[in-house]
Amino acid sequence: MVLTALVVGLLSLFQLSIISVVSTVSLAVMCFTISVRIYYQLLYILNWGDGEHPFKSYLDLNISFSGEQADFYMQKAISLTLSAVDTLRRLFFVENLFESLKFLFLMYLVTYLGGLCNGLTVLIISVIALFSLPLFYERRQDQVDGFIGKIQARIDNVKDFLRRLTQGGGPPPDTTPGGAKPKTQ
């Protein structure tokens, strides 16, 4: 139900502006809620209902913040924003060459992805993946874990190679215990 609503909403943004989509959804919700309210009022007038407001539980919800909660969430938002700005500063001004190269490669991949499709398509694919990947993983957990293990091993090899390359090259580290050399005949 939620997946369908999200995908239909996102697909409608392909044809209509966001203002049109929001106003149309708002009109649909208002038509529904007014109809239900009038229906319950009519039942009360005919003595077939108790006259209680149908959306009373939603109207009674407390959605206000105390001063402490507002301060907590604001501090958290400021902390996350400053952390993101600090990370971007370190990446753009090349504090760590390896991390900046990874960021450069990621941005190149994002521009390539942007050439293939627009952001809304990526968002729709992400929503569908959000709902379908957990089910896929649950059904094929052993196969997925093995595949991810192989990918992680290759990524670790590439990271090790690039790290050695940025530190001046050199042979790979000796993996034998204690650095013992095998006997040659």
UniProtKB/TrEMBL annotation:
Residues 1-185 form the Reticulon domain. This is Reticulon. It comes from Characodon lateralis. It comes from the Eukaryota. The keyword ATP-binding does not apply. InterPro entries: Reticulon, RTN1-4. Keywords: Endoplasmic reticulum, Membrane, Transmembrane, Transmembrane helix. It is a multi-pass membrane protein. Residues 166-185 are annotated as: Disordered. Residues 176-185 have a biased composition (Low complexity). It is found in: Endoplasmic reticulum membrane. The chain crosses the membrane at residues 105-131.
